[in-house]
Amino acid sequence: DARVTQTPRHKVTEMGQEVTMRCQPILGHNTVFWYRQTMMQGLELLAYFRNRAPLDDSGMPKDRFSAEMPDATLATLKIQPSEPRDSAVYFCASGPATSIYEQYFGPGTRLTVT
Amino acid sequence: AQSVTQPDIHITVSEGASLELRCNYSYGATPYLFWYVQSPGQGLQLLLKYFSGDTLVQGIKGFEAEFKRSQSSFNLRKPSVHWSDAAEYFCAVGGEKNFNKFYFGSGTKLNVKP
């Protein structure tokens, strides 16, 4: 049963610290998405990649957030420096090349910045 | 502008009763429509999708949804709800106009009474 995996599942950090979240997409999927979920804003698309190239990161605060895909099996989302308003659940999703409008979500990383 | 509206924030139904969750969308091209379910502490799971063809689509877990272009709606239905269906449900719209980019609704939380 292929799944998207995300690490860590929970992260508590202090304001100003760097946070790195990792995602392993489903093997063979070539699109990767990063979302942020909060009570106030709901699900927001931060960035997405196709064949490891960033296609759209307009939803991401550029000054502190960065997203990369060092290889086809790893996507990272980094926040530096972190702020309390970044507290949220961050989801990674991947999609197959055969059906580009399908997205399969990971379990999320719950980030708390104090 | 593209958007998705789920007018019901919370819905409570009795186990065994029928269910309909509403979703209205605004999209400037042919929409691709999706319903996802999120159980507490979990990522989103795809229930069903509509791309084209038959406007009544069947999904997993006994769910179905009907696309009504004239009403810009894609309501989710289930004839008999089970306690395990208690979760949050998200409608999403995407399509060729916005390559892979999904717009999610704010979600509807479903409670199931025994």
Question: How would you portray this structure in words?
Answer:
The complex is a heterodimer of chains A (114) and B (114). Chain A is 0% helix and 57% strand. Chain A contains no helices and 11 strands. In chain A, the strands form 2 sheets. In chain A, strands 2, 4, 5, 6, 9, 10 and 11 form a 7-stranded mixed sheet that branches. Chain A starts with a strand and ends with a strand. Chain B is 0% helix and 56% strand. Chain B contains no helices and 12 strands. In chain B, the strands form 3 sheets. In chain B, strands 2, 5, 6, 10, 11 and 12 form a 6-stranded mixed sheet that branches. The termini of chain B are far apart. The chains are: A mainly beta (114), B mainly beta (114). Chain A binds chain B through residues 4, 31, 33, 42-43, 45, 48, 50, 55-56, 91, 93, 95, 100-108, and chain B through 32, 34, 36, 41-46, 49, 51, 90, 94-95, 99-102, 104-107.
Compute the average pLDDT of chain B: 91
List unreliable stretches of 5+ residues of chain A. none
Give the low-pLDDT segments of chain B: none
Structural class of chain A: mainly beta
Provide the descriptors you would attach to this structure in a database record.
heterodimer, A: 114 residues, mainly beta, seven-stranded mixed β-sheet, four-stranded antiparallel β-sheet, B: 114 residues, 12 strands, 56% strand, globular
In short:
The complex is a heterodimer of chains A (114) and B (114). Chain A is mainly β and 114 residues long.
Write the layout of secondary structure elements.
The complex is a heterodimer of chains A (114) and B (114).
Chain A: E1 5-7, E2 10-13, E3 19-24, E4 29-38, E5 42-50, E6 53-56, E7 65-71, E8 74-79, E9 88-96, E10 104-105, E11 109-113
Parallel strand pairs in A: 2-11
Antiparallel strand pairs in A: 1-3, 3-8, 4-5, 4-9, 5-6, 7-8, 9-10, 9-11
Chain B: E1 3-5, E2 10-14, E3 19-21, E4 24-26, E5 32-38, E6 44-50, E7 56-58, E8 64-68, E9 73-78, E10 87-95, E11 98-104, E12 108-113
Parallel strand pairs in B: 2-12
Antiparallel strand pairs in B: 1-4, 3-9, 5-6, 5-10, 7-8, 8-9, 10-11, 10-12
